[in-house]
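Practice problem 4.
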């Protein structure tokens, strides 16, 4: 498995770079990333007559990302101080062909589509929603709605249906007009009961908030669905790690803006997927994650770090692919104003099997739950239901593919 890593220029600050090259005599240049537009760096911290000295650099300059280039052309690796405990050596790893068994899907062979979905949204999750929905009604000094597990299941089913039967609003599914009303929804639950569940639906106890976790209102549900995704995962060879966006235009500390994305405003979710799009694990970006733990340092794991200058600088880490064999690709050179041949390391084969997160994102957004709410957590809640549908769909496809390849004669 391979994984894209940040570029070297993002790995350490100018102050760290200066400390690391204090004993070097062949430094050619040090590149410093420009400051943000709202950061004032016109004034140095020292006297005007002493310009050019390290002591005259301001705090924002010393904290800015930096990159070091040496006079000779021999590749050099500058390691940030926080990574110096790791032992780095020059060299390459050999790509060794290893047999990887096709995922065994026999345990899902006899399950229906509904049963596959219940592998992700099971009775334990339904009980959680029933309990916290009733608790939230009482928290708001309202009468106990006495919502049953069957009603929560019906409620989720209606939400899923709105993903492919879009109407102007949730009330229209019970409208008397023949061009609006959906008989399946109309006959399964009363409109006012559906709206009541929409009002009180909840995933966590408001009496026990965890203010260090911005996602505490969804954390119990997220943890349970994560566990289901992991337990139903059938090991595959090609995996990828990427981000996806959950559309949201309201106000929240976790809302992000990413220029160039199809969805520019919303919550950023880090996703770990198979090449087919199955979601293995995920977590929402919220800055400093309060659930992150210190871990043991990797030792002698044979991880190769390769930095390759393509149209941009690409840094990739892998335990499987190395530099050799080197191939050539055609690129346009601004210097020569012509097409030239550029050596490309073997590790770039990572690109051949990536895209599973984008595939999942495309499938989920094609049939996104259509019911909207003013609650900040509703887009994430509905996304969790959508990815449960998608994951069960991928498992169903895997069953059919497994049967076609290994059917008993």
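Answer key:
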């Amino acid at each position: 498995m391979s994984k894209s890593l940040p570029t070297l220029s993002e790995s350490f600050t100018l102050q760290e770079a200066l400390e690391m090259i204090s004993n070097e005599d062949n430094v050619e240049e040090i590149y410093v990333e420009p400051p943000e537009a709202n950061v004032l760096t016109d004034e140095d911290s020292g006297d005007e007559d002493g310009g050019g000295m390290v002591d005259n650099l301001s705090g924002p300059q010393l904290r800015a990302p930096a990159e070091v280039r040496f006079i000779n052309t021999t590749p050099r690796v500058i390691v940030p101080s926080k990574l110096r405990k790791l032992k780095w050596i020059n060299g390459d790893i050999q790509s060794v062909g290893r047999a990887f068994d096709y995922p065994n899907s026999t345990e899902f062979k006899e399950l229906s589509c509904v049963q596959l979905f219940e592998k992700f949204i099971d009775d334990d999750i339904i009980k959680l929603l029933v309990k916290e929905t009733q608790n939230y009604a009482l928290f708001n000094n309202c009468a106990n709605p006495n919502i049953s597990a069957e009603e929560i299941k019906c409620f989720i089913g209606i939400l899923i249906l709105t993903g492919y039967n879009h109407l102007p609003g949730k009330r229209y599914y019970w409208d008397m007009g023949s061009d609006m009303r959906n008989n399946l929804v109309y006959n399964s639950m009363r409109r006012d009961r559906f709206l009541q569940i929409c009002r009180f639906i909840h995933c966590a106890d408001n009496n026990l908030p965890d203010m260090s976790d911005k996602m505490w209102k969804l954390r119990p549900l997220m943890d349970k669905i994560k566990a289901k995704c992991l337990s139903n995962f059938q090991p595959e060879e090609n995996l990828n790690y990427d981000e996806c966006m959950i559309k949201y235009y309201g106000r929240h500390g976790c809302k992000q803006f990413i220029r160039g994305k199809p969805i520019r405003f919303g919550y950023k979710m880090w996703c770990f997927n198979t090449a087919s799009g199955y979601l293995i694990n995920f977590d929402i970006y919220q800055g400093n994650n309060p659930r992150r733990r210190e871990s043991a340092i990797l030792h002698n794991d044979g991880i190769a770090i390769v930095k390759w200058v393509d149209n941009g600088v690409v840094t990739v880490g892998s335990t499987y692919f190395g530099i050799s064999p080197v191939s050539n690709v055609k690129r346009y050179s601004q210097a020569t104003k012509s097409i030239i041949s550029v050596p490309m390391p073997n590790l770039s084969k990572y690109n051949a099997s990536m895209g599973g997160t984008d595939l999942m994102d495309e499938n989920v957004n094609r049939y996104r739950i259509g019911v909207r709410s003013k609650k900040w957590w509703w887009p994430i809640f509905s996304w969790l239901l959508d990815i449960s549908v998608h994951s069960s769909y991928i498992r169903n496809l895997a069953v059919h593919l497994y049967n076609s390849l290994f059917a008993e004669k």
